[in-house]
Task: structure prediction
Amino acid sequence: MLPLNDINPTRRAPILTWILIAINVLVFLWEISMPQEELQRVFLDYGVVPNNVSGNPISLESFLDTVRSMFFHGGWAHLGGNMLYLYLFGDNIEDRFGRVLYLFLYLVSGFVATVAQILIDPNSPIPLVGASGAIAGVLGSYLVLFPGVRVQGIVPLGFWAFFTQLPAWMVLIFWFVIQVFSGLAALGPSTMATEGGVAFFAHIGGFVAGMLITAVFAVIVPQPERPQRYEMLYERAKRYRY
Result:
């Protein structure tokens, strides 16, 4: 299912989510402005290259490479998919935890995702770029906090497609299972873990990290009381009535 909307109101504008999306888009526009050879050099110099990082894991350069790599993308589809998921699910995590904890969750999930992929293929010379690991952390967080929220989207069936609503737990667990099976299928003596340019184990690591971090944060930042959540839903329904 391609998610298009979640029926999950927020109490405040998701400023940080918008900023993260804007930075990713601006960096990508900068990427496509340069020749392909120059772009590959940028990825090699400023992105995460597993065989470089695994040889010098605890260094300022490895840290900066990991942060920078979270804002690079390999193409329009890569960028669009990531930004769609961040836009749909990030606002509620930001609303629940506040901007500081949300940013912490986002970045730490991205770091864990990078480590997970490097552990699978430490000698790979292929740069790891993209916000997928950090956004996977957001998805894992959403699964913990809002498993029963209805997600609206499109289910493609060959040449046909239909709109439907599914609970968030079904959408997100299905996404996670796909990552696990795809990652396992990509392993092998003649197959790289980044088969098809997708770092599946980064997605897995980020998702699990987001779930674990959220389990801790949920104790620190309590969920709004049930009457308040119902009122939020009612107010949102009024906004979309016309």
In short: DSSP finds ten helices and three strands in the chain. The first helix runs from residue 15 to 32. The chain has one domain: 2-239.
